[in-house]
């Protein structure tokens, strides 16, 4: 049976990224790596922010306490609650101060401000600011140049844990948000880079391979990858090109060998092996499709005498001429002319009924006669002639492959007996 050729392209070229595609995998991987790097960098940045913020707060509180120390000492020395109130209020007006108290040297409060509702302390706020919330400074009063400074009271201040944590979280959100944005932008840039420089050229190579005719691999549409001539992708395409061309050469050699193995070396027509395959194949086909099939056996008359008198070389030359003449009467795209052996040829005519085959046989006989090859020792004619036996299998009539051949052979034998240079047949051999 004739096996159907595989269709091509074998698969549709891939042009858009799909789930599981290289681009998607690259995108996910890049995003993951970018997020990982961003979170590590963000964490380091957060640690540094926390350290800086603690230092800033401590410095600011120390400066504020130093600034108000003189005035607060004056208020404590004079036991002036209004002045103490004023100073404490100034400190308390800062949002980060939760509690402030100015006391005299007996510990009595001259002024005190307290935030009524404090946010609950959390593990994070305690870890970050727990140890820097409480500040206490002695109030030093200057008594004169020859007297030492006297402690006249103290000022105590507690920072708002919730407010500091809020400030810190606000910074965190900004840092984290920026890191995520950075990761996304970086990912998009990397993905775009990989897609343009790696994935897209690879897709081009894939599309070219998918479009390649498996029967003509050497003629594949080799993709031109601009900018990749000397890199790995360029080398990949070159290697593929070499491989496919070598493959093509192999196929051509195989076809050539196949052709040679099916050809008769002397006459150039099909050999017996090819005839056997072709005949078997078309006999089955004729059975299946209910089509007629005809066979003609052709034998050169008195060829032994021809050889004996004109020489074997002349005999060879004549066999070639006869084969060539016979070939003129058949349709090589449909029929087969083969050398059956020695000076005997056979014609297989698929789809041709008895009448068609007889017409072809007459054509064959006349074609040989028209060669006008002198044969002075022929019993049939002064020129070289052929005898033929025709057998046909009509559409829908079952005749075995062997029987059909046998019938054609018998008719040929009869043609020889009846004087040669003739076509013998029987209309309904079965
Ligand atoms: N030159 C040449 N002769 C061949 C070749 N093959 C077979 N022959 C000759 O063909 C001749 C066939 O002779 P026979 O079978 O007796 O048949 P014939 O002499 O043609 O007689 P009929 O068939 O009865 O007409 C033999 O002499 C073979 O040597 C070949 O390849 N070249």
Automatic annotation (TrEMBL):
The keyword Transmembrane helix applies. Gene3D superfamilies: 3.30.70.270. One of its GO terms (molecular function) is diguanylate cyclase activity. Residues 291-428 form the GGDEF domain. It holds the Pfam family GGDEF. The chain crosses the membrane at residues 172-198. Coiled coil: none annotated. It catalyses: 2 GTP = 3',3'-c-di-GMP + 2 diphosphate. PROSITE patterns: GGDEF. SMART domains: GGDEF. Its cofactor is Mg(2+). Keywords: Membrane, Transmembrane, Transmembrane helix. GO terms for biological process: cell adhesion involved in single-species biofilm formation; negative regulation of bacterial-type flagellum-dependent cell motility. One of its GO terms (cellular component) is plasma membrane. Its EC number is 2.7.7.65. This is diguanylate cyclase. It comes from Vreelandella maris.
């Amino acid at each position: 049976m004739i096996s159907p050729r595989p269709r091509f392209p074998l698969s549709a070229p891939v042009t858009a990224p799909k789930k599981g595609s290289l681009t998607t995998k690259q995108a996910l991987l890049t995003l993951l790596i970018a997020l990982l790097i961003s979170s590590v960098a963000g964490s380091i940045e957060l640690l540094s922010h926390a350290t800086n913020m603690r230092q800033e707060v401590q410095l600011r509180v120390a400066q504020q306490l130093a600034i108000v120390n003189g005035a607060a000492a004056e208020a404590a020395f004079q036991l002036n609650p209004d002045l103490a109130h004023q100073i404490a209020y100034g400190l308390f007006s800062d949002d980060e101060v939760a509690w402030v108290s100015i006391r005299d040297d007996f510990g009595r409060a001259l002024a005190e401000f307290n935030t009524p509702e404090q946010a609950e302390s959390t593990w994070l706020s305690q870890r970050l600011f727990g140890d820097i919330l409480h500040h206490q400074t002695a109030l030093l009063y200057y008594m004169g140049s020859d007297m030492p400074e006297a402690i006249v009271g103290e000022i105590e201040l507690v920072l708002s844990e919730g407010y500091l944590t809020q400030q810190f979280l606000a910074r965190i959100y900004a840092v984290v948000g920026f890191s995520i944005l950075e990761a996304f932008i970086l990912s998009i840039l990397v993905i775009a880079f990989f897609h343009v420089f790696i994935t897209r050229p690879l897709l081009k190579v894939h599309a070219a391979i998918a479009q390649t005719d498996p029967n003509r691999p050497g003629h594949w549409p080799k993709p031109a990858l601009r900018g990749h001539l000397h890199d790995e992708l360029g080398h990949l395409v070159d290697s593929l090109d070499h491989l496919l061309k070598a493959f093509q050469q192999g196929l051509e050699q195989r076809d050539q060998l196949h052709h040679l193995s099916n050809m008769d070396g002397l006459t150039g027509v099909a050999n017996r092996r090819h005839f056997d395959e072709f005949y078997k194949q078309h006999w089955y086909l004729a059975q299946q499709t209910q089509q007629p099939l005809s066979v003609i056996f052709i034998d050169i008359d008195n060829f032994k005498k021809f050889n004996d008198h004109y020489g074997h070389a002349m005999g060879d030359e004549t066999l070639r001429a006869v084969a060539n003449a016979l070939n003129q009467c058949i349709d090589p795209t449909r029929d087969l002319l083969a050398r059956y052996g020695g000076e005997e040829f056979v014609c297989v005519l698929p789809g041709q009924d008895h009448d068609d085959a007889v017409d072809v046989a007459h054509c064959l006989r006349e074609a040989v006669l028209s060669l006008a090859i002198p044969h002075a020792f022929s019993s049939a004619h002064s020129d070289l002639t052929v005898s033929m036996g025709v057998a046909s299998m009509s559409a829908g009539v079952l005749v075995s492959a062997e029987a059909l051949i046998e019938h054609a052979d018998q008719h040929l034998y009869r043609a020889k007996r009846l004087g040669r240079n003739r076509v013998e047949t029987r209309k309904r051999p079965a």
